[in-house]
Amino acid sequence: MNISTRQLKVFVTVAHAGSLVEASRLLHLTSAALSVSIKTLEQEVGFRVFDRTTRALRLTAEGSRLLAVATTMLEQHEATVHAIEDIRLQRSGRVRIATTQLLSCTLMPPALTRFRAQWPQIEVVQVPALYDNFQGLLLRKEVDMGIGPQRLCDDDLQATPLFASTLYLVCSIHHRFASRQSVQWKELDGEKIFLVDKRGAGWLARDAGYQLQFEHTVDVGHFSTALALASENEGVLFGPGFTRPLLLPYTLAMIPLAAPAAKRSFMLYVNAQDAPSAAAAQLAAHLSREFHDLT
């Protein structure tokens, strides 16, 4: 059986119009062409769909049942066409994105809210993860992209700069640096430094372009833990500027670092072996615009 969408559309239009003349006006086709289409449809289905009189066409019992089926099929076909168009125009799809803990609770929520408002048919699944887990997630294709600080990455991954955020010293409001306009790196000798990762000192040296010699560092594992300890004036930590809202529950100050000033670069990571989906490309472009002027 070979029934076309065009035949079904003609049949449904004629059934609702009640005559070939009225249907021909609606479809901009001749009555003869509609008559041929109906006859061809009847040959395909193996039964008459209309009882023909001199005045009108009336559906047969079989035709009435076919009308319900044909109407549903045409609605589904139209929905499919719209879905395909959404994909072509990057209006729909599903994107899985891995982000670090800090990004997940600061920059990402408002950025994704604005994205969903603009592209409601694109589903974004955010996967909070440590950067060390990004590579495996991307290589196993469990996520489509990842956003995190600049690090060395696997040859099969591609890293594109997304934004850079100024690094600040974070300390208690009772700390000796709290009232300062800026603090130089060399003034931190002897300070207890809270690090979220034991490798943090090396990354700080790279970000600052300065050889750091911290005498006392403590790996605390979580940024929130470091904030709580610093709030008790137990030591200091470093944080990018976008983390400032996280300081609000604590008695903390954020002081610019100087000599030299430092910025931390954040990258968009993807699997270099796979072309991004249209939806993923749309999200990447949106995030690039969102974070373009971030400092």
Describe this structure in words.
The protein folds into 3 domains: 5-88, Winged helix-like DNA-binding domain superfamily/Winged helix DNA-binding domain (Arc Repressor Mutant, subunit A, Orthogonal Bundle), CATH 1.10.10.10; 93-163 and 266-290, Periplasmic binding protein-like II (D-Maltodextrin-Binding Protein, domain 2); 164-264, D-Maltodextrin-Binding Protein, domain 2, CATH 3.40.190.10. 40% of the residues lie in helices and 24% in strands. It contains 10 helices and 12 strands. The relative contact order is 0.14.
What's the short version?
With 295 residues, the chain is α/β, with parallel strands linked by helices. It folds into three domains: 5-88, Winged helix-like DNA-binding domain superfamily/Winged helix DNA-binding domain (Arc Repressor Mutant, subunit A, Orthogonal Bundle); 93-163 and 266-290, Periplasmic binding protein-like II (D-Maltodextrin-Binding Protein, domain 2), CATH 3.40.190.10; 164-264, D-Maltodextrin-Binding Protein, domain 2 (3-Layer(aba) Sandwich), CATH 3.40.190. The protein has ten helices and twelve strands.
Write the layout of secondary structure elements.
Blueprint: H1 5-17, H2 20-27, H3 31-45, E1 50-52, E2 57-59, H4 61-88, E3 93-99, H5 101-104, H6 108-118, E4 122-128, H7 131-139, E5 145-149, E6 157-172, E7 183-184, E8 192-195, H8 200-208, E9 216-219, H9 223-231, E10 237-240, E11 252-258, E12 263-271, H10 278-290
Helix pairs in contact: 1-2, 1-3, 1-4, 2-3
